[in-house]
């Protein structure tokens, strides 16, 4: 049951008085009595002091490192005067003094010494992405304790051994062992070496025990954890952040957690939660340059229907396990993919609709090997029924194909990355290519 | 005399693998958190500053003597020491002024503060967003109050306003921020 707000408001007021130096002995007695009355009042006391600490930090223009060094300096000076016979105090004094001198010389030193710790990079952005504060870019480095907030769309962040997809609106903060989710949905795909990766919300701490899991949290609505493949351990947390119950979830299982009523129970698993990211990113590991994914299923990819003025679009299509050998005409000639291979198809779509001075460049890295790149309109039309999205209308005119005299396509030596530069010759500006990627070999 | 060292020498002093450098790095990384721990127990900035200075010396000595090697989590270990010193500080003050929170309640405060770090981090993020919604003048007012440790009477004198006007404004801004945080935490509106 929630505490009545007046008692919390009173606690806030009393803490404000205490912080401002205006508290009387009767104020302190009242704080004591409120804390003994309810754990929620105790929590309110701690929260309110933390509120003042945050305002203090926001008001303090000097970096935390400099503030800390000043305290060290004062402490060491005081103690060194008192115990000047001790060699080690003089040693510390030397280090602290020199650091303070360096601080005076400029912030460059500080940024070098106390550089923020990088934890990952932004690997993919969807076309409908709306950032909440700062702009996000492909390849941008994400640092420890950095918060990424989006209003809409999907941003994928590659951490060592973990791919994190944040679906907006949402906000995550990167921590040493994982991340904190204050709002939104996060899907984590974890490689074997990344086991132990943790996503934390106010109600639950979900730790990966292998492969792919999802955590969703909305303030006031609680948290939801589901496991698509592998296993995860979900610990329900109480209002202090202490674990109170553990649920081990395995493939295709889900649970809901609500702090206010103490609920922690298994609920029906839904694969739909994962489809948004699957449709947007599929087996794409990384994007670079002016290339984006698409959040939904496009109704039409015919000329002028889905325009991409500033970027290339990569659209995951269907994954097909071949019943028989498939021979396609790729950029490098005929390619035969053996029966039994699971092939993922990705359509590169570029339709600027008006003449621009320079076309964008971009590259896509897949988790599997590229089997073929189809660029002729005839071959695109032939493969549309096999690999194309069922609800999407495709262009069938010949201008959809790449013009090999002006469009550039390069595949990396490991056949996992393909880079594009599409020319722009009016009147028809649409360029498309289909990339077939091996998801599983027979 | 202040030693004169090049930037490179300074950088290497912090980057070498000695325990002194490691201590400085860990202390500076956790400084804000330690300060918050002290403030929550002692209740005012002046006493929190004293506790942190004292803690700095104690931590350094214990670190040098290898105590930290047995616990491994610097934040947890150093916070425990700060809490103990803060509690002693309150006891001393209580003896002098005959008022203050009891040991039992202080213990509860310390336990809650220790356990709730993640939740508090989330609240801080929301507070930052709410601060961004205040006008520049209101933010400047708060910076003036929180940065300078100046008594409200001094701020009122500098701003040419009455003490009660300044006090009311401070109260109003805190209220605005509190309401904004409640909305964000509760219904998720305004996104």
Supply Rg of chain A: 28 Å
Number of strands of chain A: 24
Terminal Cα separation of chain B, in Å?
56 Å
Number of helices of chain B: 9
The proportion of residues forming helix of chain A, as a percent range, comes to 25-40%
Dominant shape of chain B:
globular
The greatest inter-chain interface is formed by:
A-B, 79 and 77 residues
**Class computed from helices, strands and strand pairing of chain B:** mainly alpha
Estimate what percentage of residues of chain B fall within beta strands. Answer: under 5%
Multimeric status of the protein: heterodimer
- Structural class, from secondary structure content of chain A? alpha+beta
Main β sheet profile of chain A = 13 strands, mixed
Terminal CA distance of chain A: 57 Å
How many independent structural domains of chain A? Answer: 3
What is the gist of this entry?
The complex is a heterodimer of chains A (442) and B (191). Chain A has helices spanning 5-19, 25-37, 39-59, 64-82, 87-105, 107-113, 272-281, 377-387, and strands spanning 118-125, 130-131, 141-143, 147-152, 154-159, 162-174, 178-190, 198-200, 204-218, 222-237, 243-250, 253-258, 263-267, 284-289, 291-293, 312-321, 326-330, 333-337, 342-350, 361-366, 369-374, 408-411, 417-421, 431-440. Chain A has 442 residues and is α+β, with helices and mostly antiparallel strands.
């Amino acid at each position: 049951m929630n505490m009545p707000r007046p008692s919390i408001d009173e606690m806030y007021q009393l803490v404000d008085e205490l912080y401002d130096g205006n508290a009387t002995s009767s104020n302190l007695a009242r704080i004591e009595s409120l804390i003994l009355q309810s754990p929620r009042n105790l929590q309110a006391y701690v929260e309110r002091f933390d509120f003042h600490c945050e305002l203090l930090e926001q008001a303090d223009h000097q970096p935390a490192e400099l503030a800390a060094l000043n305290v060290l300096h004062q402490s060491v000076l005081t103690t060194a005067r008192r115990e000047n016979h001790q060699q080690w105090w003089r040693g510390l004094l030397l280090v602290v003094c020199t650091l303070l001198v360096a601080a005076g010389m400029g912030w460059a030193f500080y940024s070098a010494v106390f550089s923020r710790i990088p934890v990952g990079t932004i690997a993919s952005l969807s076309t409908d992405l709306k950032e909440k504060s700062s702009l996000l870019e492909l390849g941008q480095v994400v640092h420890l304790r950095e918060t990424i907030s989006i209003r809409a769309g999907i941003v994928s962040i590659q951490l060592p051994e973990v791919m994190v997809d944040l679906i907006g609106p949402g906000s995550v903060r990167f921590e040493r062992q994982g991340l904190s989710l204050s709002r939104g949905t996060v899907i984590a795909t974890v490689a074997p070496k990344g086991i132990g990766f943790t996503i934390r919300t106010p109600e639950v701490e979900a730790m990966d025990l292998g492969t792919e899991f999802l955590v969703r949290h909305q303030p006031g609505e609680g948290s939801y954890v589901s496991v698509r493949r592998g296993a995860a351990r979900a610990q329900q947390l109480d209002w202090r952040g202490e674990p109170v119950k553990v649920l081990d979830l395995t493939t295709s299982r889900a649970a809901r957690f609500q702090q206010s009523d103490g609920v922690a129970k298994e609920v029906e698993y839904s694969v739909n939660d994962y489809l948004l990211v699957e449709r947007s990113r599929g087996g794409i590991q990384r994007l670079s340059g002016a290339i984006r994914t698409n959040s939904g299923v496009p109704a039409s990819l015919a000329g002028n229907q889905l325009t991409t003025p500033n970027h290339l679009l990569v659209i995951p299509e269907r994954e097909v396990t071949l019943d028989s050998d498939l021979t396609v005409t790729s950029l490098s000639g005929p390619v035969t993919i053996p029966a039994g291979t699971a092939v993922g198809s990705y359509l590169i779509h570029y339709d600027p609709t008006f003449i621009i001075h320079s076309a964008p460049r971009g590259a896509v890295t897949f988790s599997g090997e590229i089997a073929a790149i189809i660029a002729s309109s005839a071959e695109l039309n032939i493969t549309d029924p096999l690999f194309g999205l069922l609800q999407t209308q495709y262009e069938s005119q010949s201008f959809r194909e790449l013009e090999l005299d002006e469009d550039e396509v390069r595949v990396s030596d490991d056949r996992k990355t393909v880079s594009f530069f599409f020319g722009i010759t009016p009147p028809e500006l649409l360029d498309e290519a289909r990339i077939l990627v091996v998801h599983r070999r027979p | 005399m202040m030693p004169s060292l090049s930037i490179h020498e300074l950088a290497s002093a912090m980057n070498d693998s000695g325990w002194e450098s490691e201590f400085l790095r860990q202390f500076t990384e956790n400084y804000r958190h330690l300060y918050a721990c002290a403030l929550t127990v002692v209740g005012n900035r002046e006493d929190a500053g004293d506790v942190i200075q004292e803690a700095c010396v104690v931590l350094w000595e214990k670190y040098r003597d290898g105590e930290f090697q047995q616990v491994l989590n610097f934040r947890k270990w150093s916070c425990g020491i700060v809490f103990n010193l803060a509690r002693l500080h309150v006891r001393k003050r209580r003896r002098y002024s005959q008022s203050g929170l009891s040991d039992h309640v202080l213990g509860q405060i310390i336990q809650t503060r220790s356990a709730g770090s993640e939740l508090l981090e989330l609240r801080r993020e929301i507070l930052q967003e709410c601060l961004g919604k205040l006008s520049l003048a209101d933010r400047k007012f708060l910076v003036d109050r929180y940065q300078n440790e100046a008594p409200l009477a001094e701020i009122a004198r500098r701003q040419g306003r009455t003490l009660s006007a300044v006090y009311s404004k401070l109260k109003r801004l805190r209220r605005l921020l509190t309401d904004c945080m409640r909305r964000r935490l509760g219904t998720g509106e305004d996104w």
